[in-house]
Amino acid sequence: MAKLEEIARTISLHAQPGMKPKALMAMVKEHHPEASKKDVSRGAFYAVILAAERDPNKVSVLHDMAMAARSEGAGLSEAGGGLLGFESQKAKRSKKTKH
Q1: For residue range 5-38, what is the model confidence (pLDDT) as tens digits?
Q2: DSSP for 20-88?
Q3: Residue ranges of region Disordered (predicted)?
Q4: Rounded (5°) CA angle 38-92-44
Q5: Does residue 71 contact residue 80 with C-beta atoms inside 8 Å?
Q6: Residue 99 scores a pLDDT above 60
Q7: How far is CA 37 from the centre of its chain?
Q8: How far from each other are the two terminal CA atoms of the chain, in whole angstroms?
Q9: How many domains does one find in the chain?
Q10: Most CB atoms within 10 A, among 24, 42, 47, 94?
């Protein structure tokens, strides 16, 4: 748990609005070279929990980064669309009928 808390604190201190998942991973790797993508994703969500207790205004920024880190860790593109980078089947069907 100590490693997770350290990663969460690093993310809380250094994360910036609009930061891309790759930049987030690189930033965390600078401070925690042994961290895996899964560690970064978990740390990002833990940072959201910690921020909710201390600074509610920071929660949305950290949540967006946590979701992006999760998508990056799952091999999803940033432009995947939909919740967590998944595009719904309904949205795919409507695209096919429009073309």
Answers
A1: 999 999 988 888 788 888 888 999 999 999 998 9
A2: -HHHHHHHHHHH-TT--HHHHHHHHHHHHHHHHHH-GGGHHHHHHHHHHHHHHHTT--TT--SGGGPPP
A3: 79-99
A4: 20
A5: yes
A6: no
A7: 10
A8: 50
A9: 1
A10: 47
* Residue 7 near residue 32 (C-beta atoms within 8 A): yes
User: Which one-letter amino acid corresponds to residue 3?
Assistant: K
What are the pLDDT digits (tens) for 44-73? 888 888 888 787 777 777 788 788 877 765
Spatial CA neighbour of 66 closest among 35, 99, 37: 37
HSE-up (13 A, CA, CB side) for residue 89: 0
Residue 31 tokens read as: 């401070």
